[in-house]
Automatic annotation (TrEMBL):
<keyword id="KW-0560">Oxidoreductase</keyword>
<comment type="function">
    <text>Catalyzes the reduction of dTDP-6-deoxy-L-lyxo-4-hexulose to yield dTDP-L-rhamnose.</text>
</comment>
<dbReference type="InterPro" id="IPR005913">
    <property type="entry name" value="dTDP_dehydrorham_reduct"/>
</dbReference>
<keyword id="KW-0521">NADP</keyword>
<comment type="pathway">
    <text>Carbohydrate biosynthesis; dTDP-L-rhamnose biosynthesis.</text>
</comment>
<dbReference type="GO" id="GO:0008831">
    <property type="term" value="F:dTDP-4-dehydrorhamnose reductase activity"/>
</dbReference>
<feature type="domain" description="RmlD-like substrate binding">
    <location>
        <begin position="8"/>
        <end position="287"/>
    </location>
</feature>
<dbReference type="InterPro" id="IPR029903">
    <property type="entry name" value="RmlD-like-bd"/>
</dbReference>
<dbReference type="InterPro" id="IPR036291">
    <property type="entry name" value="NAD(P)-bd_dom_sf"/>
</dbReference>
<protein>
    <recommendedName>
        <fullName>dTDP-4-dehydrorhamnose reductase</fullName>
        <ecNumber>1.1.1.133</ecNumber>
    </recommendedName>
</protein>
<dbReference type="Pfam" id="PF04321">
    <property type="entry name" value="RmlD_sub_bind"/>
</dbReference>
<comment type="similarity">
    <text>Belongs to the dTDP-4-dehydrorhamnose reductase family.</text>
</comment>
């Protein structure tokens, strides 16, 4: 056990939440895991009671409304989870003295930049989802011990995501048309989990100041380039993945054309930014593929 401190993880049943729990367990940290059935973040009294009961030193909020397109017509519901939920957590953490690590998104930016977004770059969300996530950020940053960690293009073993979808489609499609005019940073949820734990320790040690951090892999690619790499790892011909434009896949919520995030603040805090996305994907892929095969042959 590490210094008898306690971590509380909300959204513990999701892909990132599961990876955070695994990393805490590997590190010998004591933790409390609360999924959405165990804690409704939209209920301020329930949030306050949970923190009073468990008295955590660090709260990692992995809970979120992530249905980007649905938020366009259900913004109030998304705001209750993405905006009010973090506000309730921030207020409860302020009362108990806990550090709050809140996971946010690249969608708070307009997505029209040509160089990586710095942590203090102006926000300008173009979707309901982005607006609700920005509301949560503002609530967390209004406290002295609030940390916002923006991520993007997240994939892993514990839930549906782009990598698992492409593995499935490779097996049933001769060719695949994938968008090549959106740039970002594929990020393994296990890598992000490790970064969150390291940031929480830095917060407790006083070496990582509160504020905004960017938790994405290094390097950048397009969805087309990402898919080609997935095909290579499958042993499939990457030329079966054909480039197309966003106009071919019109969706209710606009997608950022440029989601590349800079990592300057982690360096300032003495924490190594995440590794290159290709390196991470190569390590993550065998387990993701194994889980895919298991679920599709059961």
């Amino acid at each position: 056990m590490t210094d008898n401190r306690t971590w509380l993880v909300t959204g513990a049943g999701g892909m990132l939440g599961q990876d955070v729990l695994a990393r805490l367990s590997q590190s010998g940290e004591r933790y409390v895991a609360l999924d959405r059935k165990a804690l409704d973040l939209t209920d301020a009294d329930a949030v306050s009671a949970a923190l009073e009961e468990h008295r955590p030193d660090v709260v990692v909020n992995c809970a979120a409304w992530t249905a980007v397109d649905d938020a366009e017509t259900r913004e109030d519901e998304a705001l209750a989870i993405n905006g009010d939920g973090p506000r309730h957590l921030a207020e409860a953490c302020a009362r108990t003295g806990a550090v709050l690590l809140h996971v946010s998104t690249d969608y708070v930016f307009a997505g029209d930049a040509t160089a990586p977004y710095a942590e203090d770059a102006p926000t300008a969300p173009r979707s309901a989802y982005g607006r609700t996530k920005l509301a949560g950020e503002k609530a967390v940053l209004a406290t002295e011990r609030g940390y916002v960690v923006r991520t993007a293009w997240l994939y892993g073993t514990g839930g549906p995501n782009f990598v698992r979808t492409m593995i499935k489609l490779e097996g049933v499609k001769d060719t695949l048309d994938v968008v090549d005019d959106q740039r970002g940073q594929p990020t393994w949820s296990a890598d992000l989990a490790g970064l969150l734990v390291e940031l929480g320790r830095g917060a407790l040690a006083g070496t990582a100041p509160a504020g905004v951090y960017h938790g994405t892999s290094s390097g950048e690619t397009t969805w087309h380039g990402f898919t080609q790499e997935i095909f290579r790892l499958l042993g499939a011909d990457p030329d079966r993945v054909r480039p197309t434009t966003s106009d071919a896949f019109v969706r209710p919520a606009p997608r950022p054309a440029y989601s590349v995030l800079g990592h300057g603040r982690f360096a300032e805090a003495g924490i190594e930014p995440l590794r290159d996305w290709r390196t991470a994907l190569t390590e993550a892929f065998p387990e993701i593929h194994r889980v895919h095969l298991k679920e599709n042959t059961a």
